[in-house]
Amino acid sequence: MSVLLETSLGDLVIDLEVDACPKTCQNFLKLCKVYYYNLNAFFNVSKDFLAQSGDPTATGTGGESIWSLIASQQGKQEPRYFSPEFIPHLKHKAKGTVSMAVAPSVEGQGEGGCGSQFFVTLADEIDYLDGKHAVFGHVVEGLDTLDKLNDIFVDQEGRPLKDVRIRHVEILDDPFEDPLGLVVPESIPTRPPDNSTRIAEDEDPLATLPEEEAEAERRKQAARASALTLEMVGDLPFANVRPPENVLFVCKLNPATRDEDLELIFSRFGSIMSCQVIRDKKTGDSLQYAFIEFDKREDAEQAYFKMQNVLIDERRIWVDFSQSVARLNGGWSNNPKMGPRPARGGRGHGGGGFGGVDDLEPTRRYREGYGADGGRYGMVFDVPDDRHSKRRSQSKERMVRRDLSRERRRRSRSPQPRDRGRDGVRDNRGRRRSHSRDGRSRERYERDRRR
Questions:
Q1: Which residues, given as ranges, of the chain have pLDDT below 70?
Q2: Positive/negative CA dihedral, 275, 276, 277, 278
Q3: What residues have CB less than 8 Å from 294, skipping those under 6 apart?
Q4: In this structure, which topology does domain 247-324 adopt according to CATH?
Q5: What is the pLDDT of residues 389-437, one digit of tens each?
Q6: Are 254 and 288 in contact (CB under 8 A)?
Q7: Which class is domain 2-171?
Q8: Percent of the chain topping pLDDT 70
Q9: Where are the domains of the chain?
């Protein structure tokens, strides 16, 4: 009576001792029948000693017998383990001996015994396991698979760094009847029962991609890191932001082309939400490119195909889809005439906060002139308006007045040259003094001096 274990390292054919260990073999076969061992990991591998599996949790503390499993499915109580069958002539002599792991009895948790965990020996003459664990089979095919399992790299706890799993179990012969209440699942498990973070059993950690694919992957990772950096400094609302599909970028414009002219030309393709020629922040001169936002993506696509290399104001323009995401947070410039557009939904159009998140606000390190909503910012090149010019002129006028007032106060406090007249000394303000410094009159002062 045999069972085929298809592992990630190769196949193992196990011949069972059904006559000597009927209960142990029945438990093992029925667990195989309900796919209990499928995708189980070998969680304990010791070189030249043993390889242990059969625990769905891959911790060494899980697993139960088939009778306990059936009872738990029916909501009944059944002992987790059954008594081991120790057969004197079945010993751990040869490599490939299959034995059930016997759990010790724990006070307060019932008696120990055999559940679902089993192990395969990886060396000969391991006689100190005799009488401690119950032998019930031997590996008759797949000794080379055991050699691979013996040479695998493990951590300090004996867990392989790269998962070794039982992919599938095939019962070659089963002489036992099914226990009452046994239900075979309709489908084979496709996900491992444990949450492993190890190298996957079908993953090659040393595999390298072709140079072109590796370069593409490096660029993708670099772009992802750059996008995350731009999100942190506030230039992007969120790292995986996507450029709008209804906005066109038009360049090579004539400096004389105005917003309304461009909007009139492109409006024949559909409704335009906004059209603006970007201008220099200081001079107001056209930078010869513009952004045009359509209401529908189909209209933008039609304008893209129809307006390529079209002559406008004696200049052949170039049209492409915009890659800028500034529109997700505000206008193309902080032109006060445009004003903030209402949110149109989506994560990038949030009304409060920043980037659609209520408890965030944008950085103000590189941008000034934020809108009143607090979550929008403009382009580097702003369009000056009369209100700002008037405000600057008023500010300069106040500064001139303040400087004149300071100068007058300074002069009033500083000493002036004294102008002596025919009748005495003038004061600092040019007025004639009729008294001496101690308050006496001029005549009395002369009289006292002659005396």
A1: 1, 106-110, 235, 237, 326-400, 412-446, 449-451
A2: negative
A3: 246, 247, 248, 269, 270, 271, 272, 273, 300, 303
A4: Alpha-Beta Plaits (3.30.70)
A5: 555 556 666 666 777 777 777 776 665 555 444 444 444 444 444 444 4
A6: yes
A7: mainly beta
A8: 72
A9: 2-171, 247-324, 420-450
